[in-house]
Amino acid sequence: MNSLNSTSSTSDGPSRHRQLLPALTGIRFIAAFYVVVFHALPWLQQRFALPQPVRTFLGNGYLAVSLFFILSGFILAYTYEGQIAGSINRKRFWEARFARIYPVYVLSLFLSWWFERGLPVKTRLAVLAMVQAWNPRAPELTGAWNYPAWSLSVEIFFYLCFPFVLPRFARISDRALVCLIGLATLAIVFLFTPIRGLGILDRTSMVSAYIPLPVLRIPEFFLGTAIGLKLLRKERQEGIAGNALLTSLAALAAVALLALPIGRWVSLVAIPFAVLVYQLAAGGTLLAKFLSTQPMVLLGSASYAVYLLQFPARSWMRVFFQDASGRLASLGAPLTPVVLVLFSIGVFYCWEEPCRRKLRARFARSPIAPQADGLAR
User: Fold this and answer.
1) Residues 287, 31: contact at Cβ < 8 Å?
2) For position 206, what pLDDT does the model report?
3) How many helices (H) and strands (E) does the chain have?
4) What span, in angstroms and rounded, lies between the C-alpha atoms of 109 and 146?
């Protein structure tokens, strides 16, 4: 989640220059914290008389994951375009992805172990292998051990496909790229991919199960990939600068769609999400400048840990405050987000980044985009 390295090189081509995209790091914290507040909604509703638009907005917090998928495709395309062809570069890409995501992932499982002690061995193996969301016949695996980790299982599927998809997308014409953006958007909106999984009947309970199979979420990733390539082409042809009006309208449209009681048509939020990502990457607007400030970039850098550690943080805070009484007991829940953010910043500096560097060193000191993987999740 760090800023993208401005210059990267590859063994099969000339040095590729990429501008910094700190605003996309900053917005990650907002998205991650939105998910955290979404999971705190039952507590908030018990204690506060929230207006209906606020309840609806907070209740749609899970849709921040759709923004993450779009961001992931965008940043990976922007980072690796022209640098990922061939088996050696594919291997280096997968090594970089593993070094970036697995340390915090396994830490989140370690910290959640005490609260999920009864899981079967096969479930633990599926989660450790990051394939828990891949099996439509095993819905119980999807949220096992550490519930938010299901989205990383989906991301792993994207990462496996990406080195084969990007070179093909990069070769298509501008018109075809626009068509791809349109088709991906239509698939997201009319197939309602951000809000549904695979509806099947569980053999024991005979109720519909939500299984966010990776293949059902791939339009979001492809949309991000396509708009990332679109930005690169515009940057090379005429330079780029964000449009303040479009950025503001996209942000307002996203908030409005998330706050309105429109049911499954909240999938329309993918459109302002995509516009917002593109405009923030182009930079120059007031919102982009705010998200690019040092505090927001720091919070964005820690946002991966914020997202993955929210369950163990909440669980351990309950343990620490379970014997408290009176006013002290009431502080446990409101203090949890603060502790989570501070702890996540520490994890970023003391665990995530050191582990990434050590793993990259063990993976033969790959010369491909040595710091570029810091931006992408």
Assistant:
1) no
2) 35
3) 18, 4
4) 6
pLDDT value at residue 151: 96
Q: Which long-range contacts (CB under 8 A, 24 or more apart) does 85-94 make?
A: 85/12, 85/167, 86/12, 88/11, 89/10, 89/11, 89/12, 89/163, 89/368, 90/163, 90/164, 92/363, 92/366, 92/368, 93/159, 93/162, 93/163, 93/368, 94/159, 94/160, 94/163
**CB distance 63 to 194 below 8 Å:** yes
- What value, to the nearest 5°, has the Cα angle with vertex 311 and ends 309 and 314? 105
DSSP 189-241: HHTTGGG----EE-TTT--EE----HHHHHHHHHHHHHHHHHHHHHHHHH---
Per-residue pLDDT tens, the chain, 377 aa: give them. 443 333 333 333 333 556 789 999 999 999 999 999 999 999 999 999 999 999 999 999 999 999 999 999 999 999 999 999 899 999 999 999 999 999 999 999 999 999 999 999 999 999 999 999 999 888 889 899 999 999 999 999 999 999 999 999 999 999 999 999 999 999 999 999 998 754 443 444 433 446 678 999 999 999 999 999 999 999 888 777 889 999 999 999 999 999 999 999 999 999 999 999 999 999 999 999 999 999 999 999 999 999 999 999 999 999 998 877 667 777 888 999 999 999 999 999 999 999 999 999 999 764 544 444 444 44
CA dist 337 and 343 (Å) reads: 10
- 163-193 burial, b if ≥16 CB within 10 A, otherwise e? bebbbebbeeeeeebeebbeebbebbbeebb
CB under 8 Å to 252, separation ≥6 — which residues?
Answer: none
Rounded to the nearest angstrom, the gap between the alpha carbon of residue 374 and the centroid of all alpha carbons in its chain is 13
The residue to which tokens 């429109």 are assigned: 262
Alpha-carbon distance of 43 to 64, in angstroms, equals 20
Specify whether the CB–CB gap between 20 and 6 falls below 8 A: yes
List Cα–Cα distances, 205 to 200, 201, 365, in angstroms. 11, 8, 50
Beta bridge partners of 16: 8
The Cα 83–Cα 78 span in angstroms is 10
- The pLDDT value given to residue 199: 42
* Angle value at C-alpha 59, between 56 and 63, nearest 5 degrees: 110
